Amino acid sequence: MKLSLKIAKLGQPLTYRRAWRRAERVLHPLPLEPIFRRIDQAKLAAIQAQSAGSKEHYAKYADVRRWLRLNIIRAQDLKLHRCPPKSVLDLGCGGGFFLFVCQQLGHACLGLDIDEFPLFTQLLDLFGVERRVWTITPFEPLPDLGRKFDLVTAFSIDFNRISKQDWWWGPEQWAFFLDDLKRHLNPGGHVFLALNPSGPKKEFYTPELRDFFLSRGASVERENVLFPPND
Questions:
Q1: Residue 231 to residues 1, 26, 144, 209, 218, Cα–Cα distance (Å)
Q2: What residue numbers bound the domain in which 26 lies?
Q3: Residue among 228, 124, 133 at smallest CA distance from 182
Q4: What is the number of other CB atoms lying within 10 angstroms of the CB of residue 178?
């Protein structure tokens, strides 16, 4: 990166916010090893042996240390290691890494996802993470989940697109989805989204969609979108 670009970045609020989050992780650490040691190592070894050598894209999630480390950072950035117990719903929970970390911090957790990848089912069982099988589709409400939540998260979102097609949700689809989520939130509950890039320019949202998120009171920072408390 050119020096002029580096200097320009230093003047951006985003740079300071990211630097402060890194500093907070150091000031309030959440070590990997105590969490990793709570996993049944014999079961984990069997899962990893079964996945070894596989060319399946999802086989990479057998590297449990790698994905726990990432999700520890996510939990730190949401300050879940520095708050009272919460009820957490993770949409598109995958193998359950984020919810496993949350459970070790004393939070009550539920995942929601499709059931297409055996490795994810094995990992969820290994972690003791509860999953509700469901396909999220535009303009269709989520099922009754039996309880409400203080935090709803969705990381590396994939449900807002048609697979292998360059079609992504716009403001109308997101408006229905967010309005429906309100009935699953406790008063004061939050929704946090971490978007995947889309389109030829690999952007996280169109200008129209960004304006829509801002109109809903969201804090928008690159792929991260945090909505204000539910009233």
A1: 44, 33, 20, 23, 14
A2: 1-30
A3: 228
A4: 17
Are 43 and 119 within 8 A, CB to CB?
no
Burial per residue of 210-230, b for 16 or more beta-carbon CB atoms within 10 angstroms, e otherwise: eebbeeeebebeebbbbbeeb
Amino acid (1-letter code) at residue 89 = L
Classify residue 78: in a domain, yes or no. Answer: yes
Spatial distance between the Cα atoms of 103 and 110, rounded to a whole number of angstroms:
10
Indicate whether 86 belongs to any domain.
yes
Whether 14 and 41 map to the same domain: the answer is: no
Do 53 and 107 have their domain in common?
yes
> What's the average pLDDT block by block, 10 residues per block, for the chain (231 residues)?
48 66 80 97 97 89 98 97 97 98 98 96 98 97 97 95 77 98 98 89 90 97 95 85
Q: What predicted TM-score, i.e. pTM, was given to this entire model?
A: 0.91
How many folded domains does the chain comprise?
2
Residue with tokens 């959440």: 30
Whole-angstrom distance, CA of residue 62 vs CA of residue 67: 9
